[in-house]
Amino acid sequence: MEYLYGIVIIVGLYVILATSFNLIIGYGGLVSIAHPVFFALGAYTSAILSRDFHVPVLLAMLAGFFVALVASIALALPSLRVSGDYLLIASIGFQLGVLELIKNVRFTGGPGGFTNIPPFLIREFGRESYVLLVLAVVAAVIVLVWWIARSDYGRAMSAMRDDELAFASVGRDAMWMKIAIFGLGSGLAGLAGGLYAHYFRFITPEQFEILQSSAILTMVVVGGMRTTWGPVVGALLLQALPQAISFLQLPPSVLGPIQGLLFTGLVLVFMFFRPQGLVSAKNVWRAAPAAKARGAR
Amino acid sequence: MQDITIILQILWTSIATSTYDVLFAVAFALVLKVTRLFNFAQAAIMTIAFYTAFVVVQWLEWPACVAFIAMLATTLAASYALERIGFEALRARGVSVMFVFVFTFMVSEFVAYLAALVFGTWPQTIFPTMFWPATLVGDIAVSGWDLPAIGSTAAALAAYFGFMRFTRTGQFMTGVADNPDLAALYGIDKRKIFLVTMLISGAFVCLGMFLYGTRAQVLPETGLSLMLFAVAATIMGGIGNVGGAAIAALILAVIQNASILVIPSEWQGFLLYVFLFFAIVFFPNGLRLPRRRSRFSTATRDMPAPPAAPPAESQA
């Protein structure tokens, strides 16, 4: 049962990561690959605060959310000031740089990892309670992103993504909208990091490397960008695949590259043959004439 | 206070080891200049180049010159395939620059995982040993690797700049880089120019990886970190300025190597990300030196201003 709970939690966390990344790359049109590093920042912040500073776990998790949010703004502000292309390059440098930093400083546990992270809820209410907590956060994140995408703000996001010049010409500030989207999406990744740290209770920098970037990107591209259910389908599918491969009893030196090949290979195939993913996005502007007609009446 | 001999030794070694960084930066900057693509698939071509040489030298036990020819063949073939199968198809579909970037990044990752599966995740070198005999010149040790590396890099750069300056294809490349649509209007075959650009870039990558692989250990993911250095140098050199990228790579490599005098060696890798961050935040358009005032500009400055053009109504 513990194994099953572990799988449900990991799939749930990847749904949060893929859904929040979809907000950034799909709805916002911002290409960054640094999502795992915000996941890492949330995990490390929550773990360090709760273990070394005895901050209550719930507060530590919230701190993880805010640290990831602030770090993402610090990354996005200078790079978006220049152009969207720079966010992409800066995100690679930021991810590798932060991981290098985590490996070299003592208080994070270095390359050996951070251990003895305090558990949350499990001792008092059992593992089921943590599964329910994760599922509740998953549902909340999906609803939040769905609500944002369908709100007026979501339509403004689509306008900004599809034609930034026209968007700016009507007096809207594209840069702050991008920063807000990037900050919220990264903050949610930080929250997922906190949830991860207090269940598995051991984190290492290796868990947040480029393989994770490929995995999350694959979930969104294969599932379907700019859709509510696309990242959910992508996360379920791509978490089921490694579980299936793990039954082959391959050594870790072979298993890792095979997983990586699967993730990157799937993205490449989908980019050429089904760029819309498994769940196709609806045309956001299709409803516009009807809405206009309603407005005229 | 550091001994002057140590400083000179570090400076010399830094200049020698900057050669491959310069070649990678030139390869990246050239593709960005002409095709306007952030070609992170260059990391894949680096990986292919290195493991080709590795197989030829370590597995087949053939000489280094054969390994270099094989590397050149595979890098040119990979560059050709990337342009014709990847970039051309994506251009035809009119996808965004970001989409192309994700494609190039995924290609690099795919090749890195493939290399990890076939060759393992432990570090490898082209030759069984990285030891190069050294000769003392004054008090400075000059290794048997240094002079060929500097000489071949200088020759490759001279050949490139000569090609760009004196050949029709080179001039066409400059034309396409400046305005691809106007160049096409003048009958320049953009398709051919993009392919030639990718092939030249592949040749630079081949030489750079041969130098790197004979001096340092390579992992399947080494290409990506080498790429980041090239990106930082390209941004600092000024996008579209291949010579600027080469000079920036040289300066950054010297700073990174010389940093051993002031910071612990485990932080040297971190410096790369600091460079990248500073390049994006403070020098997004490149480092610009103040222009030297030419006689022509002085003369034109002293000339009286031309009369203002009459307004459109009065012309009508």
From the alpha-carbon coordinates, what is the Rg of chain A to the nearest angstrom? 19 Å
Low-confidence stretches of chain B: 294-316
| Structural domain tally of chain A | 1
Number of helical segments with 4 or more residues of chain A: 13
Second-tier CATH architecture of chain B: Orthogonal Bundle
Helix and strand string of chain A, N-terminal first?
A: HHHHHHHHHHHHH
- Integer tally of domains of chain B: 1
Low-confidence stretches of chain A: none
Tell me which oligomeric state these chains represent.
Answer: heterodimer
Q: Structural class of the secondary elements of chain A?
A: mainly alpha
Q: Which protein chains are joined by the largest interface, and how many residues does each one contribute?
A: A-B, 39 and 39 residues
Tell me the helix content of chain B: over 70%
Short description:
In chain A, α1 (2-27) packs antiparallel against α9 (174-200), α2 runs antiparallel to α3 and α10 packs parallel to α12.
Give a description of the structure:
The complex is a heterodimer of chains A (297) and B (316). Chain A is mostly helical. Chain A has one domain (2-209). Chain A is 76% helix and 0% strand. Chain A contains 13 helices and no strands. Chain A has helices at 2-27, 35-52, 57-82, 84-104, 122-125, 127-150, 152-162, 164-169, 174-200, 210-223, 230-246, 252-273, 288-296. In chain A, helix 2 (35-52) packs across helix 9 (174-200). Chain A is globular, with a radius of gyration of 19 Å. With 316 residues, chain B is mainly alpha-helical. Chain B has one domain: ABC transporter involved in vitamin B12 uptake, BtuC, CATH 1.10.3470. Helices cover 71% and strands 3% of the residues of chain B. Chain B is built from 13 helices and two strands; from the N terminus they run ααααββααααααααα. Chain B has helices at residues 4-35, 42-59, 64-92, 97-119, 146-166, 168-178, 180-185, 190-213, 222-237, 242-258, 268-282, 295-302, 312-315; strands at residues 134-137, 140-143. A two-stranded antiparallel sheet of chain B has the order 1-2. In chain B, a hairpin with a 2-residue loop joins strand 1 (134-137) and strand 2. Chains A and B meet through helix 3, helix 4, helix 10 and helix 12 of A and helix 4, helix 9 and helix 11 of B.
